[in-house]
Amino acid sequence: MKAIGLKDFNALSDRQRMHLLFEVCSSPIWARRVVAGSPFRDAEALYDRADRILAELPDAEIDAALDGHPRIGASVSAAHNPSSAREQARVADAGEAVKTALAAKNREYEDRFGYVYLVCASGRPADELLAILTDRLDNDPETERRVMRNELAKINRLRLERLLSEPT
């Protein structure tokens, strides 16, 4: 995702803005509702709207958003999912034991909760992400759903900030 700045983002057509927002979050409803609030007076207005829309989404649409996120530790192609590849870059350096444990815990998590383990992985090493995953397996489904939504909001915010950072 190329940084374009808020002024250029606001100057795009609705369709172009939606396309960029799909790179942030794969929920079509989220992207459509965020775009409906444009143009944005400042970046904070966009972030606030994005957060508010995400908080209002029904679970089925959150599941659509999760479809855009690969498993933590899975092979992620920068060509197919550049945001996830960047965010999980430190996982690639992990030893095989940690990668194997992540894969096993990911499956356990998905069996328990019914969706992919989501965490804001940016800048975090694999062993830290594994520890967080292990801890979250103790959550009840309602608590975990809330935690996952918060993590999705953090990821969306990070991606929006990257999108709006002025081009270099």
UniProtKB/TrEMBL annotation:
Catalytic activity: 5-hydroxy-2-oxo-4-ureido-2,5-dihydro-1H-imidazole-5-carboxylate + H(+) = (S)-allantoin + CO2
Domain of life of the source: Bacteria
Pfam families given in the database record: OHCU_decarbox (PF09349)
InterPro entries per the UniProt record, alphabetical: OHCU_decarboxylase, OHCU_decarboxylase-2, OHCU_decarboxylase_sf
Record's keyword terms, sorted: Decarboxylase, Lyase, Purine metabolism
BP terms from Gene Ontology: purine nucleobase metabolic process; urate catabolic process
Annotated pathway: Purine metabolism; urate degradation; (S)-allantoin from urate: step 3/3
Enzyme Commission number(s) of this protein: 4.1.1.97
Coiled-coil residues: none
Oxo-4-hydroxy-4-carboxy-5-ureidoimidazoline decarboxylase domain: residues covered: 10-161
Gene3D superfamilies the UniProt entry points to: Oxo-4-hydroxy-4-carboxy-5-ureidoimidazoline decarboxylase
Enzyme class: lyase
Database matches in PANTHER family: 2-OXO-4-HYDROXY-4-CARBOXY-5-UREIDOIMIDAZOLINE DECARBOXYLASE-RELATED (PTHR43466:SF1)
Protein name in the entry: 2-oxo-4-hydroxy-4-carboxy-5-ureidoimidazoline decarboxylase
